[in-house]
Every structure is written in structure tokens, then in C-alpha cells.
TrEMBL record, chain A:
GO terms for biological process: DNA-templated transcription; megagametogenesis. GO terms for cellular component: DNA-directed RNA polymerase complex; nucleus. This is DNA-directed RNA polymerase. It catalyses: RNA(n) + a ribonucleoside 5'-triphosphate = RNA(n+1) + diphosphate. The lineage of its organism: Eukaryota, Viridiplantae, Streptophyta, Embryophyta, Tracheophyta. Residues 84-192, 303-335, 727-769 form the RNA polymerase Rpb2 domain. One of its GO terms (molecular function) is DNA binding. Gene3D superfamilies: 2.40.50.150, 3.90.1070.20, DNA-directed RNA polymerase, subunit 2, domain 6 (2.40.270.10), RNA polymerase alpha subunit dimerisation domain (3.90.1800.10), RNA polymerase Rpb2, domain 2 (3.90.1110.10). It is found in: Nucleus. Essential for the completion of the three rounds of mitosis in female megaspores required for the development of mature gametophytes.
From TrEMBL, chain B:
Coiled coil: none annotated. GO terms for molecular function: DNA binding; DNA-directed RNA polymerase activity; protein dimerization activity. It is found in: Nucleus. Keywords: Acetylation, DNA-directed RNA polymerase, Nucleus, Transcription. One of its GO terms (cellular component) is RNA polymerase V complex. The gene is LOC110749525. This is DNA-directed RNA polymerases II, IV and V subunit 3-like. InterPro entries: DNA-dir_RNA_pol_30-40kDasu_CS, DNA-dir_RNA_pol_insert, DNA-dir_RNA_pol_RpoA/D/Rpb3, RBP11-like, RNAP_Rpo3/Rpb3/RPAC1, RNApol_insert_sf, Rpo3/RPB3_RNA_Pol_subunit. Gene3D superfamilies: DNA-directed RNA polymerase, insert domain, RNA polymerase, RBP11-like subunit. Residues 21-298 form the DNA-directed RNA polymerase RpoA/D/Rpb3-type domain. The keyword Mitochondrion does not apply. One of its GO terms (biological process) is transcription by RNA polymerase II. Belongs to the archaeal Rpo3/eukaryotic RPB3 RNA polymerase subunit family. The keyword Transcription applies.
């Protein structure tokens, strides 16, 4: 179940009482098991070649980095946290200015907030119950005179003005001396952090007065949020620190950041800062030279050598603000401090799949990053040996015609998640509004968008307390239930390769009737009841039993797992998407002969409405089409890496157009097209070419649902909700409005009053109040006044009119309900 | 409208003909007829294709449906298809594929015994009828027949086995693309290109060359001897208007006049190999005739006259 290694400890302990002490040593005591990260240096798969991995049944493209716990793959997730020991200034809901800092050391953690409310400054600390005026705190710390406080804060009259209301406030409270302040606080003041090294000319805090702290010509030096002291030449200091880092004297992830505005130098070595490697440039000239690269190619030099030789360094977000980073070496000026190693590394794996992302509107790239994860494809070379609870695969996945460098680096070209569809950007049939796409039936026949849906079903052979257990029986070959049992093998389990339909039996299981109490040995047939597990797949579809696996669960019960496979071809309503955040459902499927064609005989697989372009501004998609078209006609995969044009990792549109013209196409990617229905040429040239399309895992077959009558919730007697519970569909306010507007009042009456939970109450018209009595107390006439009932408790039998005659009417009213 | 005849006599001229490729001209007719011919060739000329697969053993990496789908798409020689019966219309059997009038049985047995992967191809399909076999591409591709091994169905490694029985039936491309005998059927209007020589003479040599170069396809050429621009291949013109735009850009609108001849078409037919390209055309005409007959027959009834009105009368009167 678990891929883990034992944690062994050498234990030494002292045995015996006072005089007879003996030292006992035990070596290699197992105190627990630690999960092993796959493909880490402790993993058996570490350093294996492709063929060795294949022998072990592992996929060479799997990057590892996850754990296996109880048979499930688990990943460590990153969490975002507010940085510790940093002062964060923000505005709260009431509009008060807050400066807060989470102070954290190995032992203690606390949060300090300085708040400005009504011009007055307060301190908030969880040790104190209430807000403390800032002057009280100052006085408690020993700054008894206001003069001293003002000096400490800074002599600028602006600061004094800010403090005035607080000073007044403090005086009103009558606190003047330290003792008074301390008494006010009734808590202790504890002392501060140890000090660090000052060799680089940082003047320590203890030699500085409050006044000196605020001199404008020296900078405050902070290490991980703690004040170290002051430095007069911050740039010098930062340069020296960086030199130390490049020389490897201090860690490579230490960042040095000079904040001119705050007159501070921040040095950070703590975790959680995202760092990126960049090439160091001296006055715009890259430190990485030709011979370095040759050495890298020859294998003499590694990435770490570049780091230790000070050619490359890591920068965090803060230090990036102190640098001028050129995207390319050619763009470097004398001010440039760093050069990107390769601009496509700006993006990660998922965004790296988008061709020409730098030509798209940025939200489109964001959408694609969310959608790329829903695309079907192949997941690994060993995907068919897996028993996932749900797996979507594509029957004929392809490598994108328009690739990026990232695609090649992550192996996406070996396990594609889409297909290159020839797309015509035009309007067709009206079934293509609102991003719907029109698909070519012949393309679907030939395998476009065909997918395999695998779902796992489980059954357990349960053991019970009274020593009994479930049993699995040989199926009835004829007679009762032989129909749904036809997929069963002689062992009573569904056989792999059998075609299975809804309500067929997966496992012919029997459960003992008595499962508690006394121990029982052998049971006879009459002490079992049949509980076969039925397959609840989609109605009318034929699925196949792909695999059956037997294992034991955590209570040591025998466990059966069935993998049911269903091959699906696209249908109206299935969701597709290109790599540019342009999703759409299949609006209609059209015969090939009705599809437009070019005089070369090219007929699109898919028609996309041009209205998808102007507002989305996905220019990258258009370039992908051009590049794909030229790639397919000249026989070379084209590239579209992010910001790759100057570096040669993306083909330029000019070059693509030239190729297109050379291959006899128009430079703009548009083709002269004939209508397949009439045979006449279309009025416009059509933008047509291949675009990589992904099939997304949302398919109508899994969502489609309707019902007539069905189950109801026992509490309210209203229809259940949701597809899984065969629930009703809600006729809500808006649906009701539609029916009213349409004039279908009888339908509305039937749906709301009769089909759901018909319910009647009595209304007393004089005061319009409802009374809820069981209907047996009332005659069955609707909306007919009657006089023979008085409102009494339901337990009592209503007696014949006494009061009622005084009143005019009782009306029976039907209450509407919303689920039908 | 009585007495007026719309009859035309279309002419066909074959330009090029190979087993799987044909190019011909269709003249003296209009787009509706040309398109009808194209549509019938794609969707309604019957062929034979594998439709039912019974898998006995399949230990390959591809699942049963996957293999069945691949088998279906293999083109089978279907010269007999026109005379075969559709399984649904067959009275000799109930369409369960056991009869010789509507179906052909195939067997496939393959097992890999060596360490090398075994390619199972369409050549391994054994037919019960020698007239319906998987299409052989070896000679037309110009390769040696020992090298060319047919269409790969699946690859097997040591110990894997595939054994199945398949039944091929007659069908049309409308029902499933596997029954379509056409790989490509397309036509274009024949362009009529006229160069305005007067304006052309006003151009300099470089301008003429630039103008010739502006067409993405090689329609025009510059003759260095006569220093004239000549039309070398009018059919290479893709109606892209590039030369017209170029002429306008050079300040010579009307330099060339290109019109599509509304009544002549150049067809390109590529066959999957199920039937020869020439036979495909003949079969398509036959199917088209049958369809027209169906309309003509129903025209005897009153409803049909209501339905087709003038068209019915037209067809009756000829």
C-alpha cells in the first residue's frame, strides 16, 4: 500500500534503579516508516535507464516527485503565507491605517499591530486585552519625557504633528512616569533578539541614539526583518554582499535588496521566497561566454559550475527590483545587470504549452492554464496497467504541429493531449453561435475526438463479527437473472472483455442474513440473501469490462475492483478547446459532403465562428493556424515558444507567410472555398488551417439527465435533487416567468401544483390566514366555500358549525412547490 | 413552361487517369450537377468495409473497440459492391452476416513468437472471397512489394496474440466514412484568364517579373525572348486575387481579367483504392441515375406532383 522506508534508530538507555544502573544499547530499532518520494535518490527508480524502467513497468516520462500512500498518489502542496518579521502596512475595513508584524523566532510567535484611529496611534498585542495608546508604551520603555519620544521617532515637525493627539491622550490619562506606564500595562517587557556580525561596516544599534537612527544619509540594515544597524553606503554594502554570494561565501539564495524609498537594505535568507536563476552581466556584457557554453555542451561544465563560478545567480522578487534584466543579450545596455537565460523559462509547464502566448490577451492564457488540465490524452506509457478510479484517454492523441520548447522539455510531444484539427474560421448553419463548433462527421468516423473513459467499481467480500462472511456464487446460466448475469465468469465475477450494459451484474454476491451475535461456523444456503452488485453506467451504452483486480482492504477483507471501459465518439454538446482559452461545445455534426472544400480537396474537420476572435484577441491562435498550415505543407514542425522570436525559438509570421506562398497558399492563410451544399464558391476567403484542439473531460453523456416521476425526499415529500439521485429539475422563478410570458399557464399549473407535491391548505378569506388541517377534515371540493368546519386542533374531531356561520368563507388553496 | 427544354448535354474529357487518381473536365453543365456528382462520389457510392468484429483472443496493447475501429477503416476492394445487397435488405439472411449475397468473412490470426515486434497488417486479413480483399498499395507506391506490408493494424510483442473473425458488409459513406470510396473529390471552376496586352506592354521588365512573381502559384510566366507575360497554367490559379491586387498596386487596374467559367469544371478524384477512380465516377453516375429514377417513379402519384410541381412536369416532359 505504501511506498516507504523504515526509520531506524539506535537507542541507548539506562536500566535499573539507583545503585544498579546498566546502560543498554539497541541498534536499528524501527520507530516508524517514512514515505519515499518517487525518483528521489532513495527511490529504486533513481538513475534507471528507459529500458530498465520499462522492465519494471514504469513510465520514463514520469517526473516523480510524489509519494504513494495507501495506494494513492500524494503530492506536497505549496502554501502561501504572510512573510514573518516584515512590517506590512495596510488599511483595514474601517479605513484605519495598520502596520502589523508577525514576530517569529524558534520559541515565540506574536503579532504586533500599530493602529491609527481618529488621529491617535495605538498598539495592539495579544498579551493586552485592549488597545494601548502608543505614548504609554513609549513611557513604559523608559522614554519619560515627550521630548525624548519625539527625538526617538524623528525630529521632523511632521512626525511631531502626528504624535500630538496621542501625547495629549496620554496626558489626560495622567501617565507621566515609567512606573505609572508599567502599572497601566501591568505586563512585563521582554528583551530583543541577539545581534549579528558587523564586519561590512554596519553600525550596531547599541552605538546609535534614537536621533542617529533617522539621519537621512545612512540606511537601515535589516536581516530577515530584524534591525542589524545602519550603513552609510548602502550600494557599496549591497555590492559587497553580492560579491560574497557570487563567491559562494554566503548561500546562493540570500537576497540583498536596497530600498531607496524606505532607506533600508533588506537581507533575506529565510525560506519561501521564489528565486529565479539569471545570467550576471557587467555593464551589459554577459559573464557567460562562448567557451563556457562549449564546455557545457561538451559536458565538462554543469549548471552548478555556472553558479559557483559566479556566472549565474539566483534573484528573489525583491532583488529583481534592484536589477535591470534584459530579455536578450542584444537588448542589454550599460545599465543592465542581468540577462535572462532563456525567456521561455518565465512560464511553467502548463502555460508553456501555449504557442505564441505573448501574442494573446493575458486572461486567455490564464484560462488555458485552467483548461489544459481538463484535456484528455495519454497520461503515461504504463497507463493501461493502472487502476485509476476515473481515467480519460484519447484514442488517437497527436503531437501538436505548432510546438514550443517547453513541450519538448516536458515530453508533451510524446504524450499528446489533443489533435491537430483543420479549422475553418467561418459561420455555418447557425449551430455555431456562442462559441459552439460545427464538426465534420467523417472526421469523427475516422477517429477525431474519440476517447476512452475508464471507471473503477469496487466490491468487498465483507467479514462479520460472528465469524460469517459474504460469499460469491457461480452465476445462474439459465432461469432467473441469467440475462444480467451473462457477463459473469464461473467465479461469479464479471469477466474481462465482456460487453456490459446498465443493470448487468458485476458480482454475484450473497450476504449472511444474521451478521451479529453468536459465533457461527458453516451456514447453509437459506441463511444467505442475494445482493448482486449491478453496473450503473449510462443507459443505452455498451461498455466493456477492461480489467478485474483482486486485493485486500485495510480490514483484510477480500476486495474486487472492476475497471469498466467505454469508448466514446464526440457528440453534440461535448466540450472542446484550443490552446488559447477558447472553449466551445460541439453545436452540430455535419456530413462531409455538406462541408466546404477547397480546390485542393481540403475539407475542414471543424468550423469555428469568427465572432470568437475580436473580443478575445487571441492573436496567438491565428499565428498557430498560420504556423500549423505552413508546417504541414513544408514538413517541419514550427515553434511558438514564449517571447521566442528573437531567440529563434518561435517562427516569425513573415517567415511563415513566405513558406505559405512558396507552397502555393495565400500569405494570409485564407483559402478560396466552395460550399459543399451548392457547389458555388463562397463570397469570402476563409481563414483555414490546422489548430491543436483538446477534448475536455466534460461530456454530455455524463451530465444529461431528465425524469418523469421518481424518488422523493421522505422529510418534505418533494422530489430529490441531483443527477445521482435521479432528481427532478427545478422550475425556478425565471423558468416560471418564461412559462407565464409564453402563456403556458396550464403547463405551469400542472408542473407547480400537481406534478410535484400537491398540497392543500385552507385559507380563511376574511383575514387571509392559512390553517393547516389534514385534508380528511375537509370536503374534496376546491375553491368552494363551506361552512362546516371550525379551526380546532387536529386531534379533536371538528364539530359542526358554531363559529363558522358567523364567518363568510373557507377556501381551499393549493400550495406550489418548485421541484417537479 | 410546357415545351421548353432545359436539357443540356454535358461533356466529359479525361485529362489524366491512374488507378487511384483521375482528373477530368466536365463542361456544359452547372454547379448543381457538378456538386451532385461530387457529393454522390463521397457519400453514396457503395463499398465493402468491415462492420462486425468478433474477437476471440486479444492480448495486444490496443483494446477490442480500438482494433475493430481500425479494421473498419481498412479499404477493401469493392468492385462487386454495386451488385451486392445491403444486409438490411438481404432476404437470404437476417443481416447477421452469414450469407454470401451481403457479406464477406475475414479471419485474422497473429501471434508474436520472436523478440522483435510483429506488425499485424491488412495483409494478415484472410478473406473468404477473393474479390473482396484488403487493398494492395505495393505496386502503385512504386516500392518493392516485400517492403510494402499494407496497413498496420497493431504491433505485437513476444507472447501477444490477436485472433478474430470479421464480417465486411456493403454500405455507403453517408452512414460511416469507412464506406466512402473517395479520399478526395473536389472540383474547381475553370478560370478564363485574359491579359490586357496593351497595359502589359506599358510595364517595365522588372515590373512584369514582379507581377508574375506575385502569384503564389505558377500561373504566369515571363518569356525572356519575346519579353511577354504568358499564361502557362490557368488551372493553377486559386482565385486568390493576388495578381489583381498587385496590378492595382502597380497602378494598372484591369491588367488582367479573370473570370470563372460558370459551366465548366475541373474535377480531381482520388480513390481510397476500394474502387478504381474511373469506376468510382461511373458508379457515381449510376447511383445518381437511380436516385433520379426514384424521383421520377414517385412522380406518377398526385402527391409527388404537389411536392415537385414544375420539376415533376419538367422531368415528364423532358
Amino acid at each position: 500500500y505504501r511506498y516507504s522506508a523504515p526509520i531506524k534508530v539506535d537507542v541507548e538507555y539506562i536500566q535499573g534503579s539507583h545503585d544498579q544502573k546498566t546502560r543498554v544499547e539497541k541498534k536499528g530499532v524501527v520507530i516508524g516508516r517514512m514515505p519515499i518520494m518517487l525518483r528521489s535518490c532513495s527511490c529504486t527508480l533513481y538513475g534507471k535507464t528507459e529500458s530498465e524502467l520499462a522492465k519494471l513497468g514504469e513510465c520514463p516520462l514520469d517526473p516523480g516527485g510524489y509519494f504513494i500512500i495507501k495506494g494513492n498518489e500524494k503530492v506536497l502542496l505549496m502554501q502561501e503565507q504572510l512573510s514573518k518579521n516584515r512590517i506590512i502596512i495596510d488599511m483595514d475595513k474601517k479605513g484605519n491605517l495598520n502596520a502589523s508584524v508577525t514576530s517569529s523566532s524558534e520559541r515565540i510567535k506574536s503579532k504586533t499591530i500599530i493602529q491609527m484611529e481618529n488621529q491617535k496611534i495605538y498598539l495592539m498585542l495579544n498579551q493586552f486585552v485592549k488597545k494601548i495608546p502608543i505614548m504609554v508604551v513609549m513611557k513604559a520603555m523608559g522614554m519619560e519625557s515627550d521630548q525624548e519620544v519625539v527625538q526617538m521617532v524623528g525630529r521632523d515637525p511632521r512626525y511631531a504633528a502626528l504624535l500630538m493627539p496621542s501625547i495629549e491622550d496620554c496626558a489626560k490619562e495622567g501617565i507621566h512616569k515609567q512606573e505609572q506606564a508599567l502599572a497601566y500595562l501591568e505586563t512585563k517587557v521582554f528583551c530583543v533578539v541577539p545581534l549579528f556580525c558587523y564586519c561590512l561596516g554596519v553600525e550596531g544599534l547599541e552605538v546609535l541614539s534614537g536621533e542617529e537612527l533617522h539621519t537621512p544619509y545612512s540606511f537601515l540594515v535589516l536581516f530577515n526583518g530584524n534591525i542589524l544597524g545602519k550603513h552609510r553606503k548602502p550600494q557599496h554594502f549591497a555590492a559587497a554582499m553580492r560579491k560574497l554570494r557570487r563567491a559562494g561565501k554566503i548561500g546562493e539564495f540570500v537576497s540583498v535588496f536596497v530600498n531607496e524609498k524606505q532607506h533600508c537594505v533588506y537581507i533575506a535568507s529565510d525560506g519561501g521566497r521564489v528565486c529565479r536563476p539569471l545570467v550576471i552581466a557587467d555593464k551589459g556584457i554577459s559573464r557567460v561566454k562562448e567557451h563556457h557554453m562549449l564546455e557545457l555542451k561538451a559536458g565538462v561544465r554543469t549548471f552548478d559550475d555556472f553558479l559557483s563560478d559566479g556566472l549565474i545567480e539566483y534573484l528573489d522578487v525583491n532583488e529583481e527590483n534592484n536589477s535591470l534584466i534584459a530579455l536578450y543579450e542584444e537588448e542589454a545596455t550599460t545599465e543592465t545587470t542581468h540577462i535572462e537565460i532563456e525567456p521561455l523559462t518565465l512560464l511553467g509547464v502548463i502555460a508553456g504549452l501555449i504557442p505564441y502566448p505573448h501574442h494573446n490577451q493575458s486572461p486567455r492564457n490564464t484560462y488555458q492554464c485552467a483548461m489544459g488540465k481538463q484535456a484528455m490524452g495519454n497520461i503515461a506509457y504504463n497507463q493501461l496497467h493502472r487502476m485509476d478510479s476515473l481515467l480519460y484517454l484519447l484514442v488517437y492523441p497527436q503531437r501538436p504541429l505548432l510546438t514550443t520548447k517547453t513541450i519538448e522539455l516536458v515530453g508533451y510531444d510524446k504524450l499528446g493531449a489533443g489533435q491537430n484539427a483543420t479549422v475553418a474560421v467561418m459561420s455555418y448553419s447557425g449551430y455555431d453561435i456562442e462559441d459552439a463548433i460545427v464538426m465534420n462527421k467523417a472526421s469523427l468516423d475516422r477517429g477525431f475526438g474519440r476517447c476512452i473513459h475508464m471507471k473503477r467499481y469496487c466490491a468487498v467480500n465483507q467479514k462479520y463479527d460472528n465469524n460469517t462472511q459474504d460469499r460469491i456464487l457461480r452465476p445462474n446460466r439459465d432461469g432467473f437473472d441469467s440475462g444480467p448475469m451473462r457477463v459473469l465468469d464461473d467465479d461469479g465475477l464479471a469477466a474481462p472483455g465482456e460487453i456490459i450494459r446498465r443493470n448487468d451484474i458485476l458480482i454475484n454476491k450473497q450476504v449472511p442474513i444474521v451478521t451479529r451475535g453468536q459465533f457461527k461456523s458453516a451456514l447453509n444456503d437459506s441463511e444467505f440473501k442475494s445482493v448482486p452488485q449491478r453496473y450503473d453506467g449510462p443507459q443505452g451504452e455498451s461498455c466493456v469490462v477492461d480489467k478485474v483486480a483482486l486485493c485486500s482492504d485495510k480490514h483484510n477483507n477480500l476486495c474486487f475492483k472492476f475497471l469498466i471501459r467505454h469508448t466514446r465518439r464526440p457528440e453534440v454538446g461535448d466540450k472542446f478547446s484550443s490552446r488559447h482559452g477558447q472553449k466551445g461545445v460541439c453545436g452540430t455534426i455535419v456530413q462531409q459532403e455538406d462541408f466546404p472544400f477547397s480546390e485542393r480537396g481540403i475539407c475542414p474537420d471543424l468550423i469555428m465562428n469568427p465572432h470568437g476572435f475580436p473580443s478575445r484577441m487571441t492573436v496567438g491562435k491565428m499565428i498557430e493556424l498560420l504556423g500549423g498550415k505552413s508546417g504541414v505543407s513544408c514538413g517541419r514542425f514550427h515553434y511558438g515558444s514564449a517571447f521566442g522570436e528573437p531567440g529563434g525559438h518561435a517562427d516569425k509570421v513573415e517567415a511563415i507567410s513566405e513558406t505559405l506562398v512558396r507552397m502555393g497558399f495565400s500569405y494570409d492563410g485564407k483559402d478560396f472555398i466552395y460550399s459543399g451544399i451548392t457547389g458555388c464558391p463562397l463570397q469570402a476567403y476563409i481563414f483555414m488551417g490546422p489548430i491543436y484542439y483538446q477534448k475536455l473531460k466534460h461530456m454530455v453523456l455524463d451530465k444529461m439527465h431528465a425524469r418523469g416521476s421518481g424518488p422523493r425526499v421522505s422529510l418534505t415529500r418533494q422530489p430529490t435533487e441531483g443527477k445521482a439521485r435521479n432528481g427532478g429539475l427545478r422550475v425556478g422563478e425565471m423558468e416560471r416567468d418564461c412559462l407565464i410570458a409564453y402563456g403556458a399557464s396550464m403547463l405551469l399549473y400542472e408542473r407547480l401544483m400537481i406534478s410535484s407535491d400537491p398540497f392543500e391548505v385552507q385559507v380563511f378569506t376574511a383575514c387571509a390566514s392559512l390553517i393547516n388541517l389534514p385534508s380528511r377534515y375537509f370536503p374534496l371540493h376546491v375553491n368552494k366555500p363551506f361552512y362546516d368546519v371550525i379551526p380546532t386542533l387536529p386531534s379533536q374531531k371538528p364539530n359542526i358549525p358554531t363559529l363558522t356561520k358567523l364567518f363568510s368563507h373557507w377556501w381551499t388553496v393549493r400550495i406550489l412547490s418548485v421541484f417537479i | 413552361m410546357e415545351g421548353k427544354s432545359y436539357q443540356r448535354v454535358p461533356r466529359v474529357k479525361i485529362r489524366e487517369m491512374r488507378d487511384d487518381y483521375m482528373k477530368f473536365e466536365l463542361r456544359d453543365t452547372d454547379a448543381s450537377v457538378a456538386n451532385a456528382l461530387r457529393r454522390v462520389m463521397i457519400a453514396e457510392v457503395p463499398t465493402v468495409a468491415i462492420d462486425l468484429v468478433e474477437i476471440e483472443i486479444n492480448s495486444s496493447v490496443l483494446n477490442d473497440e480500438f482494433i475493430a475501429h481500425r479494421l473498419g477503416l481498412i479499404p477493401l476492394t469493392s468492385d462487386r459492391a454495386m451488385s451486392m445487397r445491403f444486409s438490411r435488405d438481404c432476404d437470404a439472411c437476417d443481416g447477421d452476416g452469414q450469407c454470401e449475397f451481403c457479406s464477406v468473412e475475414f479471419h485474422l490470426r497473429a501471434k508474436c513468437h520472436s523478440d522483435q515486434t510483429l506488425d499485424v497488417t491488412s495483409k494478415d486479413l484472410l478473406s473468404s472471397d477473393h474479390t473482396v480483399v484488403p487493398v494492395d498499395f505495393s505496386d502503385s507506391a512504386g516500392m518493392e512489394s516485400s517492403e510494402q506490408k499494407g496497413i498496420i493494424i497493431v504491433k505485437l510483442r513476444r507472447g501477444q496474440e490477436l485472433r478474430l473473425r470479421a464480417i465486411a458488409r456493403k454500405g455507403i459513406g453517408k452512414d460511416h466514412a469507412k464506406w466512402s470510396p473517395a479520399a478526395t473529390v473536389t472540383f474547381m471552376y475553370e478560370p478564363d484568364i485574359r491579359i490586357n496586352e496593351e497595359l502589359m506592354d506599358m510595364l517595365t521588365l522588372d515590373e512584369k517579373k514582379a507581377w508574375v512573381e506575385s502569384s503564389p502559384t505558377k500561373v504566369f510566366d515571363f518569356d525572356p525572348k519575346t519579353e511577354k507575360v504568358v499564361v502557362v497554367d490557368p488551372e493553377a490559379y486559386t482565385y486568390d486575387d493576388e495578381v489583381i491586387k498587385k496590378a492595382e498596386a502597380m497602378g494598372k487596374p484591369g491588367l488582367v481579367d479573370i473570370i470563372a467559367k460558370e459551366d465548366s469544371f475541373i474535377f480531381t478524384v482520388e480513390s481510397t483504392g476500394a474502387v478504381k477512380a474511373s469506376q468510382l465516377l461511373l458508379n457515381a453516375i449510376e447511383v445518381l441515375k437511380q436516385k433520379l429514377d426514384a424521383v421520377r417513379l414517385s412522380e406518377d402519384t398526385v402527391e409527388a406532383d404537389d411536392q415537385f410541381g414544375e420539376l415533376g412536369a419538367h422531368m415528364r416532359g423532358g
